[in-house]
């Protein structure tokens, strides 16, 4: 899978930009606050129809404009696919092959991306919601069923929490509707949890191998899906469903008192275990970074295994956070394997030696100029328009 071209209109600090990319490593070079991360953000948004930095889509629109647009052309084994997202104060519209999609779940998955930024190092030691979001974003790209179940679960969870608040304020409590909502929530919750467990087992296989390579066979990485459901109930959706139902019944009084749902995948966590110890609590900073890197690289292989296509890799200033050894492993692993977009203020040292024939883009105040790896300018605005014809 490759992103051949991208066109932006009023997106962040880009007024009107059209750019064609290389199939290998695309280096986005420039000083801070010039738009490098914004360009990666546009690619991420084109893929998932949501922003990784803010929950407000309005923040993506240039402050001087009322609407914004992101368009791209994706090359896959099955052919080229134009994608388009239109943003306004009324919401967003998604198009595939110029046809508007009624549901975003039918749009997501047309372009698969993996983002690795400095804040992703907190995947290991950060709050549980970071790891839940990681699972939802990555697994959602690989399975429309997962996205659908997640959407339904969130809708019912919101309804159930609202009803718990209403019940908590009443003397007489009608629990019939609560039982109905509990049953629905357990149904979708069980499917989400079983899908997570299935994907995590597959991801663990890839990550464990990569972690051993980086640690030179000194460390073993395993995953543990942490939930309040007993481990022996995690064998299939039916057993998880029954365990969730029993859990809601057992916690009913506590939930009515606290007026919120205390059980389910929205409360679960993912633990990374290195040499039989929770690396978040007992691991060194080096072990935590190796774990985060192993998981991100494993995602590449898992997405390929699940979809038949390698994803696009977005590296946002991550090289500056890795030592030479981990830089070397990262750049060696992706070389000639996945299309990569890498932001940096300076391409030097290890990176310069390891990246073969990069396509370099200099970004300055929302303007993009392209040059080949020998420094010759090779892309005018007209040439870019020719290459991006069709998006």
Automatic annotation (TrEMBL):
Residues 371-391 have a biased composition (Acidic residues). This is DNA replication and repair protein RecF. GO terms for cellular component: cytoplasm. Residues 3-352 form the RecF/RecN/SMC N-terminal domain. The RecF protein is involved in DNA metabolism; it is required for DNA replication and normal SOS inducibility. RecF binds preferentially to single-stranded, linear DNA. It also seems to bind ATP. Residues 365-391 are annotated as: Disordered. It is found in: Cytoplasm. Keywords: ATP-binding, Cytoplasm, DNA damage, DNA repair, DNA replication, DNA-binding, Nucleotide-binding, SOS response. GO terms for molecular function: ATP binding; single-stranded DNA binding. The keyword Cell membrane does not apply. It comes from Secundilactobacillus paracollinoides. Pfam families: SMC_N (PF02463). One of its GO terms (biological process) is DNA synthesis involved in DNA repair. The lineage of its organism: Bacteria, Bacillati, Bacillota, Bacilli, Lactobacillales. ATP binds at residues 30-37. Transmembrane segments: none annotated. Belongs to the RecF family.
